[in-house]
Amino acid sequence: xxxxxxxxxxxxxxxxxxxxxxxxxxxxxxxxxxxxxxxxxxxxxxxxxxxxxxxxxxxxxxxxxxxxxxxxxxxxxxxxxxxxxxxxxxxxxxxxxxxxxxxxxxxxxxxxxxxxxxxxxxxxxxxxxxxxxxxxxxxxxxxxxxxxxxxxxxxxxxxxxxxxxxxxxxxxxxxxxxxxxxxxxxxxxxxxxxxxxxxxxxxxxxxxxxxxxxxxxxxxxxxxxxxxxxxxxxxxxxxxxxxxxxxxxxxxxxxxxxxxxxxxxxxxxxxxxxxxxxxxxxxxxxxxxxxxxxxxxxxxxxxxxxxxxxxxxxxxxxxxxxxxxxxxxxxxxxxxxxxxxxxxxxxxxxxxxxxxxxxxxxxxxxxxxxxxxxxxxxxxxxxxxxxxxxxxxxxxxxxxxxxxxxxxxxxxxxx
Length: 415
Hints:
Elements: H1 2-16, H2 23-32, H3 37-47, H4 73-77, H5 89-100, H6 115-118, E1 128-138, E2 141-149, E3 160-169, E4 173-180, E5 185-194, E6 199-207, E7 215-223, E8 227-236, E9 239-249, E10 254-263, E11 268-280, E12 305-312, E13 322-331, E14 335-343, E15 350-359, E16 363-370, E17 374-382, E18 391-399, E19 404-414
Parallel strand pairs: 1-19
Antiparallel strand pairs: 1-2, 2-3, 3-4, 4-5, 5-6, 6-7, 7-8, 8-9, 9-10, 10-11, 11-12, 12-13, 13-14, 14-15, 15-16, 16-17, 17-18, 18-19
Helix pairs in contact: 2-3
Protein name: Eukaryotic porin
Organism: Nitzschia inconspicua
Pfam families: Porin_3 (PF01459)
């Protein structure tokens, strides 16, 4: 009886240990069967940090011992060899310097540097009615019909005008032509990328019936890792024109540049110098939910920032050679403020202008006011939610000192 009982116990123990129970299953079984002998044995085995391995089958090989657990202090004290070698102090210093270095960014053409700041205080207001009808004929060709009716702003005294514009563009070139049937004039532009995109050649040609505004100008833009240059040569106003400009990025936030042009028709030498500085500022962070539809893969707009620009242009047509501009992005892609102070350091004559831009989900509002109490405003609204919907523009200008008012509205239709 005893021998048979011992054999049955061995068979039962072998059966129980054929598949070692996990600590979770044993804990569950012990909580359910709290009064049985199985629960007591399960509790005893769960108390062990690592359950013992099952006995080997008769005649079988002894399995290897289990790996040491992470709770074993002896295993934690042993170093782990990963086959990597420690770097020398010289290599660490080189890697640290390379990580801390930041690449300079190309600041862009010189003539485009102040445009982003001046557009906030110099709004494009007009009177009458404007209508632009855009038609995409192919992925590379588009045609624009432009009407301007009931205006008093055309220099030759006309009250209406119509122009026809077409352009063909691909990855490396652009061809554009504009025809004015009333003035019998043709304007054309050709842009061509050179040297794999390092340079861009631009040819501008204008021909009219009276020949007073004929011109031919060749521009070559050259871009470097941290600078941008431009060379001009052509005929304008009945004489030869020579010009060049250079824009250098000093740091990722600071850039400086200058421009010079000589017009042989009147012997004028035009020059200007500029310093531009940008820095981050406190404000609301970028919220992707308020950006509206964006091109897939397009980067998010920059965060709140402040930009300062100082430009000195001797012989400026306005008589105020020194201009100071300030741009403040309060909320990215929502609220932007701008200011400009133009003055003459020698005569102390000055003029100040303030501007603001507010962008909404399907509309944009721009307001500007200057020191003479002249107020300008432009409201542009999309007439639909889908891309390519028509847009309506309302603009007004009021000069209280001169008692002059100007109002206009426009419509842009994409075909």
